[in-house]
């Protein structure tokens, strides 16, 4: 699984977060998506690698601005996980 962390400018409230989440769900196949206007970021978890440019363009079309995209393998953090 892959995790993408996007820095998104323009989110001001919970409705903005919901708008971004809905846009991401429609643009790419996701397992989980979570946005935070206070952190100014959206975290997307997918089964397989996705087209980062398509994700960026979908969000940009809504009026928000994607400042950066970081990606890497997703590591589940559970109650009993150890490093």
TrEMBL record:
Domain of life (superkingdom): Bacteria
Species of provenance: Christensenella massiliensis
GO molecular function: metal ion binding
Name the record gives this protein: Heavy-metal-associated domain-containing protein
SUPFAM superfamilies: HMA, heavy metal-associated domain
Start and end residues of each HMA domain: 2-67
């Amino acid at each position: 699984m892959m995790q993408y962390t996007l820095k998104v400018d323009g989110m001001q409230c919970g409705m903005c977060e919901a708008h971004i989440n809905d846009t991401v769900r429609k643009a790419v196949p996701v397992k989980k998506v979570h946005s935070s206007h206070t952190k100014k970021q959206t975290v997307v978890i997918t089964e397989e690698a996705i087209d980062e440019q398509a994700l960026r363009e979908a969000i940009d079309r809504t009026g928000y601005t994607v400042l950066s995209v970081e990606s890497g393998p997703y590591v589940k953090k559970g109650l009993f996980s150890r490093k």
